[in-house]
């Protein structure tokens, strides 16, 4: 009979555990059904609808295909491997994944094994036998405590919210990776452009030094005035000031690029000094439907935040319903350690508890209002992220439409100013022109050459900005 009793006790205990697991796995959720908000932007970008260019378009290529220049790819690879900000973003993914696993663990009970010993000395006045003495109690048990049955989906909703938070952090890391790739490439292009500006300024300074020395010799020969010498000295010092500023800018560019890379510039990296030596970026498609923006990692991150806020409403709604918790254990208990594992020392307990909110001063109602407001805020931020992305792409496309004309005009300006310098120099050498005209022509040429470098940099930066604005190649982490 005792054997049957023990068998029944085991069956009851394990039946309770199986019931708990089934109830936990079959819990529903009270979160509202999620529906993605309509994108508050046109279907096409300005200027594309009229020309019929908009339509289905392939996504941008992976960065390894988009950046065709070998030195540029090298610095990007180093940045992806060593940049500390990106490393923090990747570690945040691991942290958020662990936090999700912690929350998910509440769906099922945590079963623990425990053992304890209680020793107490009682005086005769407090002893049930009227004699002083020691009382001892030993126990060993297996069970779970305060496990909540998720009948109304509170825990499941919180788990869903934690999962969406993890997805959001993962997308934010993708966005950080894309930003790092784009910023590193932009900084490399800026460094090459500033090196070209430095070389141009150095050559200009050398020419102006030769001009100054020539004017001084003419002055000594009595064929140049004090004003000519002063003006020649002035433009020489202007060039020296510009040269020092250009050298400073190159040094700062190198320092910032090393910060992005997380390491010094490789010694084997070619010392590229002209933008024309950098292989151009790959072309992006002409037809760009705005639906491509849904793949941008920052927009996807905002949508995951919205989904998490939506799931959190389910947890807030579940607070209005009863909360049932279970505590159960099965084990051994004895006053003598040697008898702890005997057949007659078996003990078990089962303690269900239900809590129903009756009056809480509106706390649960306020918590639900907060959850619903958080969801509305997340909707607004999601829509704002889409609108911001649309504007970034539209601005870049407008710039791309005019950048070719600007570059052609700048090249024509350099050719025209170079001819002006040649004519002014010829007229001054023949004695029919004054020196101030030559100085003005040289200043105009230097300014136009700087503008040409800036226009070429803008052309590459525009393609890079468009690539980033479209969300990159959508590669996995």
Keywords:
single chain, 477 residues, alpha+beta, four-stranded antiparallel β-sheet
What does this molecule look like?
The chain has ten helices and four strands, in the order αααααββαααββαα. It has helices spanning about 1-25, 50, 65, 70-80, 85-105, 155-220, 225-260, 295-320, 365-430, 435-470; strands at about 110-120, 135-150, 325-335, 345-355. Helix 6 packs antiparallel against helix 7 (about 225-260).
Question: What's the quick description here?
Answer:
This protein has 477 residues and is an alpha+beta fold. It contains 10 helices and 4 strands; from the N terminus they run αααααββαααββαα. The longest helix is centred in the last third of the chain and has 68 residues, at 363-430.
How would you spell out the order of helices and strands?
HHHHHEEHHHEEHH
Mean model confidence by pLDDT: 86
What is the CA-atom radius of gyration, in angstroms?
Answer: 38 Å
Strand order of the largest sheet: 1-2-3-4
Which class do the helix and strand fractions yield? Answer: alpha+beta
The unreliable regions are 49-55
Helix coverage percent: 55-70%
Number of helices: 10
Question: What is the number of E strands?
Answer: 4
What separation lies between the terminal Cα atoms?
63 Å
Q: Summarize the biggest pleated sheet.
A: 4 strands, antiparallel
Shape: elongated
């Amino acid at each position: 009979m005792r054997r049957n009793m023990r068998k029944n006790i085991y069956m009851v205990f394990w039946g309770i555990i199986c019931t708990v697991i089934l109830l936990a796995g079959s819990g529903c959720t009270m979160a509202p059904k999620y529906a993605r908000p309509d994108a508050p932007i046109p279907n096409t970008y300005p200027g594309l609808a009229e020309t019929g260019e908009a339509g289905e378009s392939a996504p941008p290529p992976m960065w390894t295909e988009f950046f065709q220049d070998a030195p540029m790819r090298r610095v990007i690879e180093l940045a992806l491997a060593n940049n500390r900000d990106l490393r923090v973003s990747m570690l945040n993914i691991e942290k958020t994944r662990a936090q999700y696993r912690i929350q998910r663990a509440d769906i099922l009970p945590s079963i623990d094994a425990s053992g304890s010993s209680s020793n107490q000395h009682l005086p005769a006045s407090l002893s049930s036998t009227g004699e002083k003495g020691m009382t001892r109690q030993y126990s060993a048990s297996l069970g779970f405590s305060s496990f909540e049955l998720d009948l109304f989906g509170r825990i499941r909703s919180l788990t869903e919210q934690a999962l969406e938070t993890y997805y959001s952090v993962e997308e934010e890391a993708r966005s950080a990776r894309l930003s790092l790739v784009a910023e590193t490439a932009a900084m490399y292009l800026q460094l090459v452009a500033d090196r070209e500006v430095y070389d141009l300024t150095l050559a200009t300074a050398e020419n102006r030094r030769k001009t100054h020395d020539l004017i001084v010799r003419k002055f000594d020969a009595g064929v140049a005035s004090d004003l000519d010498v002063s003006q020649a000295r002035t433009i020489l010092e202007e060039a020296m000031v510009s040269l020092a500023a250009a050298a400073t800018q190159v040094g700062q560019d190198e320092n910032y690029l090393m910060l992005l890379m997380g390491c010094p510039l490789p010694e084997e990296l070619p010392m590229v000094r002209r933008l024309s030596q950098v292989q151009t970026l790959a072309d992006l498609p002409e037809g760009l439907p705005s639906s491509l923006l849904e793949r941008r990692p920052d927009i996807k991150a905002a949508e995951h935040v919205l989904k998490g806020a939506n799931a959190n409403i389910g947890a807030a709604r579940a607070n209005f319903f009863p909360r049932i918790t279970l505590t159960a254990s099965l084990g051994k208990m004895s006053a003598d350690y040697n008898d702890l594992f005997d057949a007659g020392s078996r003990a078990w307990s089962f303690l269900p508890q239900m809590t129903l909110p009756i009056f809480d001063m509106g706390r649960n109602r306020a918590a639900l209002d907060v959850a619903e407001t958080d969801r509305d805020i997340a909707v607004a931020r999601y829509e704002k992220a889409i609108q911001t992305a649309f504007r970034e792409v539209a601005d870049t496309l407008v710039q791309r439409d005019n950048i070719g004309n600007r570059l052609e005009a700048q090249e024509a300006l350099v050719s025209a100013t170079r001819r002006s310098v040649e004519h002014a120099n010829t007229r001054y050498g023949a004695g029919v022109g004054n020196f101030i005209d030559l100085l003005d022509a040289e200043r105009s040429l230097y300014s136009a050459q700087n503008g040409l470098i800036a226009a070429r940099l803008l052309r590459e930066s525009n393609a890079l900005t468009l690539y980033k604005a479209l969300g990159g190649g959508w590669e996995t982490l």
